[in-house]
Amino acid sequence: MLKVDLKRLLERLNPYCMDVMQTAATSTSARGHYEVRIEHVLLVLAEDAANDFGLILAGFGLDGRELAPLLESTLSALPGGSTGRPVMSPLLIDLLQEAWLVASIELGESALRSGAILLALLGSQSVDSSSPAVEYLRRVSREQLAARFEDLVSLSVESAAAERLRDAPAPAGAPGVIPGPSPTGEYLRRYTVDLCEKAREGSIDPVFGREEELRRLIDILARRRKNNPILVGDAGVGKTAVVEGLALRMVEDENQPPAERRLPSMLWDVTLVALDVGLLEAGAGLKGEFEDRLQRVLADIQASPTPIILFIDEAHTLIGAGGRPGGSDAANLLKPVLARGEIRTIAATTWREYKRYFERDAALSRRFQPVVLDEPSVHATAQILRGLKPRYEEDHGVTIREDAVEAAAQLAARYITGRFLPDKAVDLLDTAAARVQLSLSGRPELLDKEERDIEDMRREIEGLMRDRRGGLPVDEKALHSAWARLDAMKQEARTLRERWRREKLLVERLVTLRGVMSRVARAPGLLRETDPEDVRAELAECLVELDRVQGDSPLVRHEVDPDTVARVVSQWTGIPLGKVRRDEAASVLGLKFALRERIRGQDTALEILTRAIRASKSGLKEPDAPLGVFLLAGPSGVGKTETARAVSEILFGEEASLLALSMSEYQERHSVSRLIGSPPGYVGFGEGGVLTDALRRRPYSVVLLDEAEKAHPEILSIFHQIFDKGRVSDAEGRAVDCRHSLFFLTTTVSDQPDPDADALDNGADAEPERQSPDSAASEDTERRALIERLQPQLAEFFPQALLARTTIVPFLPLSPDALQDIVSLKLTRLAIQAEEGKRMLLEFSPDVVHAVAHMAAISGSGARGVDNVLRVEVLPRLAEAILRNTGHDQRDSSREPRAQRMLRVECTPDDAPTALSWRFSVRELLPEN
């Protein structure tokens, strides 16, 4: 039960029951018991035959004097010894709350009486049914008692008190008799929406891909008892759509003969309405006003001549809704009518809210039957989009290509995070269609941008002209360059305007021809003077001309294609368009060459890695396994972590798809809660786990378990299921799909250099296409031999069960040539960064590459040593030169601020031969005339 204000609950007792509670508390204290239990109250009630309780027992042939010994035996077994004031037991509080609901809603009473307590006791599931006293009271039929209640208690001492309470003026905020139905169903129309009427009007989109869930929903509604389904799933998976699909099916069956109807007979001629909890609460400022509105809606539903099913979306908002001091929330008002089966209800909520509110309230959760909605697959989402495509084509007046539907499902699943299919894919396709419709009727975005740039340039020129008129020094060369750029921008805008006009005419002609072809296809004899072949030929010519005019950057789009969808994804996520638009198969085929551009000196490892990923991407892996599980073994600083970063960017578009976990932080057994979330009852429950939440948001990810040998063995055992089945469940029981992810485990347990490694690595430099079959077979044999030599070392740190689930990828110590390649790569990146950020051209002498590589090799830390040498020896001197030149530009107004400077980094051997025997210097090069 929910938490209640005990004082306000006791105020609901009638005077007789208040005296009973005081007598029970006194008896509890005298017995030395710690809690006032239900048995204490029942014993006091059983001693008086004139109250509700005694008269009801007599009406069913029972006697309170037979019940008293049973209660005494239960109380005598309770522990004693309390010297303080007793407290009310939680079970008694729950029973009184249920009794108040029975009294106010079922009986229409303004106060709580003992007859209502007995009714609540007979309907409660939390009371110990094995108790002899409870077994004795179970002889009373609750259904018969509810039907004969007024007759049985008409002579009760509590009835006279109840009559006086009814006749007396009600205090402010006191609960009254349950409201009856309005004569015209006014409250039902005001606070609900008729979904069947919306379906008749065509306001509901068709529903696809949820036939199984809809069938389960209908099965539950067709039950005799517990016929209240609750749809549970993440936001956006289609819970409301399933209910709307039921409304559509109800409306479709209205005009069908009984033999052809798809719904069972108990759902014929039934209306489905949706409750708006927000409207119920809006303006309900007075105490009890919200409860009155809800009760009147329920009364209208029960009094309706047409059976009504109530749909409550976001059902968790009922918990606490209207729960002001002195009132009850909507959930407690619904419990009695749901328990009696007087109305059928469909609820919908998310997994998190269901576990947070419904599972913690046993009385509420047992009245609903869960129907779980999982996120659909990419293929199922594409099927849903195909079903919705005609509706969006009609609304937007555009054509949506089939490949655009596939692209919307795939790109939404891969790049749009934090949301779920099919909702995000539908929004993506809707936005793409709206963008095409806007391009047909509005100005192109590129032309608007060009005109904004022209206005910016004009303002810049006006500022320079104003400074010159005011006698301030102005760079005439910069002013002249600005005028030239303005003229070029104006010419570009005129060219864009002309191209826009031509594209618009061609697109309008294309749309007209497609409309003619559509009408001819629907009614071949309607347009007799039109030859379909001529129209088809003209259509082809129009398409060729349009492609020639548009090129790679169309200003006016005539259809939704994959490029349109990719552009929307790029703008939503900030991922560059080229990465969104690229072909996945081409990325996989070029993976090895792309990795070699970033990872130097590890051709053996990259060959093993790319072969396995190609096999997975081609569909040859286990259907339920992840894309790949790799154990990268090698010394520190040889490129293991950089390989995971590179794979993340190449395959999944960005480094944000990399989830890096340092397993040194998971050396304790209890730290598993950080990965999958804390279990119920522990701190942090409901907040999710680092691993499960990240994979739920980004199912297409690279997971890096850095320094895996440092993790606790039970932490690693969690990954066994992931590597086998591609799924993991978080602490809340929700399954997370890992089949589209790559897992990299790194370890440095093989730090000892392999004397045969250099020959293997150098032999891998040749392209596979140029190697002879014998050479390739020999290299495969050497790779297998190298992995076999690593096995004993790895087995000392990892269980065999984990090693059997991974592909071992050996990383070798970096050779001097590989170190020089890494230095060249990092210096090139540094030069690009300086040119883009500071407009500085950097040049490095050949000795710099050799010196940095030599110093990094001496440090013995591989590529990390290169970073350290650059950070300590090169960057400080380079930064000083850049800042010095920047300061000169700011102080000397005669120097052109936009001109690029050129700096050269050099090094010379130091006179004193030490480990770091190189001296670096930076000098400025004069620009050539």
From TrEMBL:
Annotated Gene Ontology cellular component terms: cytoplasm
Protein name per Swiss-Prot or TrEMBL: Type VI secretion system ATPase TssH
Domain of life: Bacteria
Gene Ontology molecular functions: ATP binding; ATP hydrolysis activity
Gene3D superfamilies linked: 1.10.8.60, Clp, N-terminal domain, P-loop containing nucleotide triphosphate hydrolases
Lineage start: Bacteria, Pseudomonadati, Thermodesulfobacteriota, Desulfovibrionia, Desulfovibrionales
Gene Ontology biological-process annotations: cellular response to heat
Chain ranges of the AAA+ ATPase domain: 225-378, 626-792
Keywords: ATP-binding, Chaperone, Nucleotide-binding, Repeat
Stretches the record annotates as Disordered: 749-782
Natural source organism: Oceanidesulfovibrio marinus
SMART domains for this protein: AAA (SM00382), ClpB_D2-small (SM01086)
InterPro entries xrefs: AAA+_ATPase, AAA_16, ATPase_AAA_core, ATPase_T6SS_ClpV1, Clp_ATPase_C, Clp_N_dom_sf, Clp_R_N, ClpA/B
Pfam annotation, one family: Clp_N
